[in-house]
Amino acid sequence: AQKVTQAQTEISVVEKEDVTLDCVYETRDTTYYLFWYKQPPSGELVFLIRRNSFDEQNEISGRYSWNFQKSTSSFNFTITASQVVDSAVYFCALSEDRGFMYSGGGADGLTFGKGTHLIIQP
Amino acid sequence: ETGVTQTPRHLVMGMTNKKSLKCEQHLGHNAMYWYKQSAKKPLELMFVYNFKEQTENNSVPSRFSPECPNSSHLFLHLHTLQPEDSALYLCASSAQAGLGGGQYFGPGTRLTVT
Known about the structure:
The structure holds 2 protein chains of 2 kinds.
Chain A: E1 3-5, E2 10-14, E3 19-21, E4 24-26, E5 32-39, E6 46-52, E7 59-61, E8 64-69, E9 74-79, E10 88-96, E11 111-112, E12 116-121
Parallel strand pairs in A: 2-12
Antiparallel strand pairs in A: 1-4, 3-9, 5-6, 5-10, 7-8, 8-9, 10-11, 10-12
Chain B: E1 4-7, E2 10-13, E3 18-25, E4 31-37, E5 44-50, E6 53-57, E7 64-70, E8 73-79, E9 87-94, E10 104-105, E11 109-113
Parallel strand pairs in B: 2-11
Antiparallel strand pairs in B: 1-3, 3-8, 4-5, 4-9, 5-6, 7-8, 9-10, 9-11
């Protein structure tokens, strides 16, 4: 069974500080996908990034960066120079690749971590 | 209208009522999902539909009944719910099932069962 652990329940930092959100996952599959989502107070989950298990290159998008390490089963998310607008709950998620042989056509639900509530103080 | 929409945004219902949640995606996707988000619990996958066919029921009680008439619409029919069913119900869609593609979520329906 797959599992995603976000050990940090809540993080509070002052604006402009860098902050890293941790994500550790468990899966028996060799092909899988990892995601980060942001949930602002409005409630809607906003897709941030998708990474497949064969691509271990780190990625940077503006102030956001992601560090994927298969050796430690981690997919950590760093926000550089945090801003108040970054305040939200952040979820890490995992999806296994069912493959096209799966009778259901391979539809894949996400397994989410419990989320990290990030508070950026002005 | 773009993205994934859900109606109603808020719903209060008694335990003996019957109501339905609606989800519509305008992204041309073929897979749709229902998730439940309760306080202090991870988001839980409830149902998965791929090309209108249900491919996953994650041990959801029968008082929740999904319906997917086409790839753009997804319903969740509710009847004789319990107070512990109060939660945020999120709908999502993805382009092609089985490829681990990103799922795009609607704003959710905040359900309160009294």
